[in-house]
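Render this sequence as a predicted structure.
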Amino acid sequence: MGLAARISALASCLLVWVGAAAQTVPQAPGGEPSAEPFGTAAKPFWRLALSPYTLHFSNDSHHRSVYMVGAERQRPDGYLLGAAYFRNSFGEPGAYAFVGQRIDHWHGGRLYLYWSAGVLYGYKGEYAHKVPLNVHGFSPAALGGIGWQLTRELSTQVNLLGTSGLMFQLSVDLR
């Protein structure tokens, strides 16, 4: 993907993400603002995630498009457990099993920080050196992100993938 196409895709993602900030506060059935902030949940629920685009920080000719699908079990206190399947930067299938936390105490729960840590699998063969501490395709991993809750069920998030790039993600909460 050329530089112009990358910039265009990044700008489109950012416009959607920033444009969501203009959304209104959740409404109760009578039209009054809801007392429960966006980020709160009374019981655990599932979150499904999809990442259609990753922006790489370098222009390595071996880089391919990265796609990810995942699922998380979100607890009411913000802690989570999850797994993701992805195609890595070199076209190899991979997986990530993790624990983490979503911290959403700003703007009524709309703005949140996210972190996860776990085990990554999939960088093997000639690309094994692309992740640290890789043993037979398994390596430790961690990521951080920032997100915006668009609606009660839909959120968007940008994840920092170490020194490699930014992953843009869309999530659906199954409450």
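Summary. The two ends are 37 Å apart (CA to CA). Strands lie at 45-56, 67-74, 79-87, 93-106, 111-121, 138-149, 154-161, 165-174.
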